[in-house]
Write a structure and sequence with these properties.
CATH superfamily of the largest domain: Transferase(Phosphotransferase) domain 1
Strand content: 15-25%
Order of helices and strands: HEEEEHEEEEHEEEEHHHHHE
Helix content: 25-40%
CATH architecture of the largest domain: Orthogonal Bundle
Radius of gyration: 20 Å
CATH topology of the largest domain: Transferase(Phosphotransferase), domain 1
CATH class of the largest domain: Mainly Alpha
Largest sheet: 6 strands, antiparallel
Distance between the termini: 36 Å
Strand order of the largest sheet: 1-2-3-4-6-5
Number of strands: 13
Amino acid sequence: MAKNILNVGGFSIIKRIGTGARSTIYMATDGQDKTKVALKRVIFERPEDSRIFEQVETEYKVSRRIDHPYVRKCYTLKKIRSMFKVKEMLLSMELFEARTLEDSPTLSLLDVLLVFRMVASGLDAMHREGFVHCDIKPNNILLSKSGSIKIIDLGQSCKIGTIKQRIQGTPDYIAPEQVKRRPLGPKTDIFNLGATMYWALTGQNIPTLIPKKDSLGLPILQQQMAPHEIRKQLPVGISKLVMDCVEEDSSKRPRNMVTVISRLDMMVHSILGGNLKSEKLKTKNAKT
């Protein structure tokens, strides 16, 4: 039994490093070239697991089209069959030792802006290849001790202009067009990014079209407040960028990710030039 756990599909398992939607992620050694990889393992156990298989295949195909330092690379996808049916998938990925943004230590305002500048750059690379991530949130951003990042979990990614058959996304970060099942595009990622920045700056979630519910299952009415109204020390310019990103009307959001990057750069330069203060922000208190 121990042998089966330590050796899977040509990979030697070193340790478990995470879990996802019906999946387990290990640090492993590739038996062919002896390199260390992150190995996502998904086992088919029930009919609804077919959706998870679809997402793993999507993640592999999309990641192979993206070559950017801030987007995690996927190397191989192995399908293990039994009785002519795929019963297990093994996705080998770039090993990046880091924590999710949700689990990262307290960051300064400058560090938060630099992190999201990198995330925006990675998303822009996806958009240039014709894809939208569709699920940017704190758990899908890895942050290393050195301050570098990786965008992960491309399983919900799709081509620009796609209309999905069902609602997909994380309720606290989901864009209106995802809920209404309208065409998805770069501005969908801009909303998801803005909602994630809102969380990072305030420790709270921006209200979306999927409201939180109380213990009785009734919707909780949430007042939409700008970040600087919650945290008085936040510069109004940064607060405005976030609120522009989470506009319900996508036409009112920043034109593209390049515009978001440009505005983030201006704020970073203001801090480095001494025009804005960079205070510590607690990013790990919110739930995703």
